Amino acid sequence: MSSAAEPISTLVERWLSQDKDPKTRAQIQALADANDTEALEALLRHPIEFGTAGLRARMEAGYSRLNQLTVITASQGLAAYVAENVTGACERGVVVGHDHRYNSDVFAQLTVRAFLDAGYRVYFYPGIGLTPEVPFAVKFLKAACGVMVTASHNPKDDNGYKVYWENGAQIKPPLDVGIARSIQQHSEPRNWSVEGVENDPKVDDVTERMMNEYFKAAEHLVADRAANAATELRYVYTAMHGVGAPFAARILDTFGLPPYVAVPEQIAADPDFPTVSFPNPEEKGALDMAKALADTQGIELVVANDPDADRFAAAEKQADGTWHSFTGDQLGSIFAAAVLEMARTDQVPTEKLAMVNSTVSSRMLEAMAAKEGFKYADTLTGFKWMANELAALQKDGYFVGFGYEEAIGYMIHDQVLDKDGVTAMGVFVQLAARLHKQGRRVHDYLEDQYAKYGFFVSSNSYVISNDPKKTTEIFSRIRFGPTQPESGDVERTELARATDVLRYPKSIGGFPVSYIRDLTVGFEMRDVDIQDVKISVAEDQFVPTFPVDHGAHMITFETRNGGRLTMRTSGTEPKLKYYLEVRSPSNDRAAAARDLDVMSTAVLEELIQASKNGLL
Question: Which helix (H) or strand (E) segment is 459 a member of?
Fold first, then answer.
């Protein structure tokens, strides 16, 4: 474990004494020989920390990166923590899977080895697989925890270590803090050998069994298999060089749907991701190759998974010949309406149906719940929060029909408490097939929802901010006005609670603010009237219902024109993200679009001051 007081030479010596991977040893040795102190500091000084339900970093040498040594120590610490906190953990076992990225198989095998050494039974997927298979197996097998080695849609040089708790959901605080502490206590790597791990008597290859159960459990989502089989709908599919192709093919067969037309250059799992600069279906241009193939074959629908197949995206050609790429929120509204239909067909009482989305996602789901009568909840950003909320609702007797966030993550399979792009694809194509028979498009179905629940238009984007101090100054000015606490550090908000005064903006783009929630300082106020009011940070009656995190920035505003804005910092990238939506209950689209445009400009120029601060 490194310390700020230790010289870099001590950290180099420690790394070289611990690391048995020739490649990463050579990297540190070469930097030491070149006396590249700056690079060594970046790699060795600050150990990798648990973030979004586990670890994610670039694959290279050093305590701050993902490599064999950090995977071993993470697994040792996790195994010890789970054994101490989950009853019968070793007998219940751990589920381990991995994707197709470089080193994923070795990282998974090292994870298995660490858990075996700790006395665990291990349920293993030795071949490349999709992320949803791990949370499904944790829940189905009643395992103590699960680990999926994947970096999802990150660049090719990254990898990750995603952790699931005994309920099948991603870990959330304070579990991450406890696991991090345990990793520190088990930071000396004990066993580097992966030879024979798959043949160990305590290792159970569950691939065939769990995949059969996974697709069997998804059968309740099939509306009419015969009708699905009779459809004349054609559609193009891209796996984005990921693992999704065989699983997508099998879910379509489960639904009785015709097979996809594959984008040949992108259908095979390839860790180099050769045809995309960033393997994320959300990115501009990511679906261009699929659309081009569809154009040549007269096909009007494109569907996609991200590399680990936990996300889903779609685009549809419209009557005028243009392609409409559905936003994450639009797909969320489409899925929610489809799930509501299926639940009613299956005679699930509406009041026992539950749906959840994240606070940065569209409020259309909330409007739908208010009108239709199902249970609705919103959560903090990330599926670790939504999945745990859904797990609690499931325990309370609700049928957890749907959960989503705007970053094209959808949970439709009630036995997978995480994003699942494969079952999302089955439900989406099934809906498209039904609409195709009626001579309608999926976009027409979206229009039906706008007619019922009001029009929602959004603009989600970000600016790159590589200077954390500059980012904090931006948020501090939003909170405190031009007169800010000294230094503007996030930590100052706790130290100055009794003396500082909050001076949030009175309006955004000229539209009066009606609601404020600041999860950094710990403040929430409804029915806001702050035209002449200055609020002390210490006024405890304004404590928010969501958990407060003084180490990250997140502020939400609502305005009296139906606008909602959330600004936050990313936990994994140097980004200041903002999510803006305007609702028109009367379906006045022109007015909503005008308001959105005005507010978007205000966010960038008045709040973030992007031009003034030199941010892209």
Answer: strand 455-464
**Greatest mean pLDDT range, 235-239, 499-503, 569-573:** 235-239
Query: 312-317 and 145-149 as β-strands: parallel, antiparallel, unpaired?
Result: unpaired
DSSP-assigned letters across all residues of 69-92: HHHHHHHHHHHHHHHHHSTTHHHH
Confidence of residue 536 (pLDDT cuts 50, 70, 90): low
Q: What is the largest CA-CA distance in the chain?
A: 71
Measure the CA–CA gap between 469 and 477, rounded to whole angstroms: 12
- The hierarchical CATH code for the domain 8-205 is 3.40.120.10
Q: Taking the domains of the chain in order of start, what are their residue ranges? A: 8-205, 207-453, 459-613
How far apart CA 367 and CA 355 sit, in angstroms, is 12
How far apart, in Å, are the Cα atoms of 59 and each of 139, 160, 310, 458?
Answer: 30, 9, 22, 35
- Cα separation, 328 vs 424, in Å, equals 12
Contacts of 313 (CB under 8 A, 6+ apart): 281, 282, 286, 287, 303, 304, 305, 306, 325, 326, 331, 408
Parallel, antiparallel or unpaired: strands 261-262 and 236-238: parallel
* 472-497: pLDDT as tens digits: 999 999 998 876 554 444 444 443 34
Mean pLDDT of the chain: 92
CATH topology of 8-205 equal to that of 459-613? no
518 φ/ψ sector (left φ>0, alpha ψ -120 to 50, else beta): beta
DSSP 17-51: HH---HHHHHHHHHHHHTT-HHHHHHHHTS-----
- Rg (C-alpha) for the chain, rounded Å, is 25
The Cα 411–Cα 244 span in angstroms is 16
Q: What is the mean pLDDT of residues 551-575?
A: 90
Ramachandran sector of residue 507 (left: φ over 0; alpha: ψ -120 to 50; beta: rest): beta
The total number of residues shown for the chain amounts to: 616
Q: What is the pLDDT of residues 383-440, one digit of tens each?
A: 999 999 999 999 999 999 999 999 999 999 889 999 999 999 999 999 999 999 999 9
Bridge partners of residue 461, in order along the sequence: 578
Among the listed residues 568, 540, 571, 573, the one whose alpha carbon sits nearest the alpha carbon of residue 556: 568
Cα torsion 270, 103, 112, 45 to 10°: value is -140
First to last CA, the chain: 36
What string of H, E and C letters represents the secondary structure of 384-441? Answer: HHHHHHHHHHHHCCCEEEEEEECCCEEECCCCCCCCCHHHHHHHHHHHHHHHHHCCCC
Residues 6+ apart with CB under 8 A from 516: 504, 523, 524, 525, 528, 530, 555, 556, 557
What is the SS3 assignment for 287? coil
Question: Which residue's entry shows tokens 């991090």?
Answer: 180
In the numeric block, the tokens 């305005």 are attached to: 559
Cβ atoms 190, 69 nearer than 8 A = no
Peptide bond into 189 cis (omega under 30): no
CATH of domain 207-453: 3.40.120.10
Nearest to 323 by CA among 304, 293, 300, 303: 300
Q: Do 379 and 356 touch, CB atoms closer than 8 A?
A: yes
Pick 459-613's CATH classification: 3.30.310, 3.30.420, 2.30.29, 3.40.50: 3.30.310
- Report the catalytic residues: 152
